[in-house]
Amino acid sequence: MNKQVKNKVLEAFIDEFLIQLKEVARDPAMKKRPDLQVIVDQDIKILEQTDNLDKLAPKLFQQISTRYIEEPKDFPKSLIELYYWARVETNKYDAVEWSDVQAGTNWLEK
């Protein structure tokens, strides 16, 4: 897979991640948990501005799991589903990114 194709795959994944976050933000169940709404809204802004999923995803995963452990009551199902979907998908994202490093295309283009 060449660099352009990998970039398109990575961009498509970031776009899908953003779509999923926005769907969670619109979930009526989020109104019961304004603390979670703030987290999701902040992450949407960060992802729209920076496209830096490498830093955002681990932080989001930690925040979701910590909040769930601390207060599982009224935890939106959509956020749980996002968590599990994103955990699987970010592994694929990391694999595509890592294969780019292994192929040496990152170093050759700098």
Q: How would you describe this protein?
A:
There is one protein chain. The protein contains five helices and no strands. The protein has 110 residues and is mostly helical. It has a domain at 20-91. The radius of gyration is 16 Å and the shape is elongated. 15% of the residues are buried. Keywords: Bacteriocin immunity. This is Bacteriocin immunity protein. InterPro entries: LciA_Immunity-like, Ta0600-like_sf. It comes from Companilactobacillus nantensis DSM 16982.
The number of helical segments is: 5
Q: Quaternary status of these chains?
A: single chain
Structural class, by secondary structure, is mainly alpha
Query: Segments where pLDDT lies below 50 for 5+ residues?
Result: none
How do the helices and strands follow one another from N- to C-terminus?
A: HHHHH
Largest sheet: none
The first-to-last residue Cα distance is 18 Å
Give the number of DSSP strands.
0
Helix % is over 70%
Mean pLDDT: 84
Shape: elongated
> Taking Cα atoms only, what radius of gyration do you get, to the nearest Å?
16 Å
